[in-house]
Write a structure and sequence with these properties.
Layout (H helix, E strand, L loop, with lengths): L1 H17 L11 H12 L1 H14 L1 H4 L1 H28 L3 H14 L14 H12 L13 H12 L6 H15 L8 H11 L3 H14 L4 H10 L4 H25 L4 H27 L3 H14 L8 H12 L2 H11 L8 H16 L4 H7 L3 H16 L3 H5 L1
Membrane topology: Multi-pass membrane protein
Keywords: Membrane, Transmembrane, Transmembrane helix
Family: Belongs to the ST7 family.
Length: about 400
């Protein structure tokens, strides 16, 4: 027991002798010094080591391709966020504004001149003009509504703008092409109307139209602008279009008498013909909307006979609309036989009207049970193909009809 106690005391003494005194540090070994050095350099050394490792493994890991893909994805995400913010703040697309306002003019916008029927250049220019104007979104829609009497009413009811910035910009460009010419500088009222068609603010356009009428009470294009944008009812629009028609017929007769004097007079005649045809077409649309269907049909038929080259207005599609409302299906079929090209469909109105007529001929006698037993007849197959053709041309029409 005494030996054990001595050994315990000796161990305690030895332990107390090896224990460092408070305030002193024991000498560090090489491992401790290395660890302390690494901790002192911080994360920078690890970053350098990681970059070196990535550089060494860049080929097997194909980091260049992945980095390029990641960078493009990041840029795309930033563009998307900016576009969303801009649209949320301004209500329009920044990319769309840049492309329409700056890029489209540089690439050559949709501009062409319309030949007056019977002129020497009509045969040469009619086909290129139709090709260029067929790319125009506004004229490709023959059922476009009146801005004041219908679009603005939609805005009042829903609080939403039915026309996009792209629609408005295209419309302004088309109005300038259709209703202006080089000789406008010779007449102060037409000079004012040139500025009016370029105005983006509707009140500014309306104010300019009134200024043109103060300079010339027979300015047809000023009445056209007021009928389109200021009139709040179809009846008001019709009244203004009748004034535009009276002034337009006078200007057209004067232009016919002077058309051979110079190329400028020929251009003026084309412009006056455009104004006259546009006004008559809109009067026909007013008559249809006011219930005078037969009057609308007569105006459109007369226009097609008198001005056959001016097909970019698609008057025949307005005629189809009126004939369908009259339930004159034989006349509808006659119009389709003239304008419907199966190999190259021209519009959704023609495609869906053709499908409607073909479906109507087989719908009364169609029976799913009978068709499942004997198969589809030739007429039924033609109807199905016409429906598929229409949906392929414009799949959004059925959703709008719902």
């Amino acid at each position: 027991m005494a030996d054990a106690g001595c050994l315990g005391e000796a161990g305690t003494a030895a332990a107390s002798h090896l224990t460092p005194t408070s305030g002193l540090s024991p000498p560090l070994g090489w491992r401790e010094r290395l660890r302390a050095g690494l901790a002192g350099t911080g994360a920078s050394l690890w970053v350098v080591a990681g970059l070196g490792l990535l550089y060494a493994l860049r080929v097997p890991l194909r980091l260049c391709e992945n980095l390029a893909a990641g960078t493009s994805s990041l840029i795309s995400g930033l563009i998307f966020i900016f576009e969303w913010w801009y649209f949320h703040k301004h209500g329009t697309s920044f990319i769309e504004q840049v492309s329409v306002s700056h890029l489209r003019p540089l690439m050559g916008g949709t501009e062409s001149s319309i030949s007056e029927p019977g002129s020497p250049s009509s045969n040469r220019e009619s086909e290129p003009s139709r090709q260029n104007l067929s790319e125009c979104k506004v004229w490709r829609n023959p059922l476009n509504l009146f801005r004041g009497a219908e679009y603005r009413r939609y805005t009042w009811v829903t609080g939403k703008e039915p026309l996009t910035y792209y629609d408005m910009n295209l419309s302004a460009q088309d109005h300038q092409t259709f209703f202006t010419c080089d000789t406008d500088i010779l007449r102060p009222s037409d000079t004012v109307m040139q500025k009016a068609w370029r105005e983006r603010n509707p009140p500014a356009r309306i104010k300019a139209a009134y200024q043109a009428l103060e300079l010339n009470n027979d300015c047809a294009t000023a009445y056209v602008l007021l009928a389109e944008e200021e009139a709040t009812t179809i009846a008001d629009a019709e009244r203004l279009f009748k004034q535009a028609l009276k002034a337009g017929e006078t200007m057209y007769r004067r232009s016919q008498q002077c058309q051979h004097q110079s190329p400028q007079h020929e251009a003026q005649l084309r412009r006056d013909a455009n104004v006259l045809v546009y006004t008559k077409r809109r009067l026909a649309m007013c008559a249809r909307k006011l219930g005078r269907l037969r009057e609308a049909v007569k105006i459109m038929r007369d226009l097609i006979k008198e001005f056959p080259p001016l097909t970019m207005l698609n008057i025949h599609e307005n005629l189809l609309e009126s004939l369908l409302e009259l339930q004159a299906y034989a006349d509808v079929q006659a119009v389709l036989a003239k304008y419907d090209d199966i190999s190259l469909p021209k519009s959704a109105a023609i495609c869906y009207t053709a499908a409607l007529l073909k479906t109507r001929t087989v719908s009364d006698k169609f029976s799913p049970e009978t068709a499942s037993r004997r198969g589809l007849s030739t007429a039924e197959i033609n109807a199905v193909e016409a429906i598929h053709r229409a949906v392929e041309f414009n799949p959004h029409v059925p959703k709008l009809l719902e």
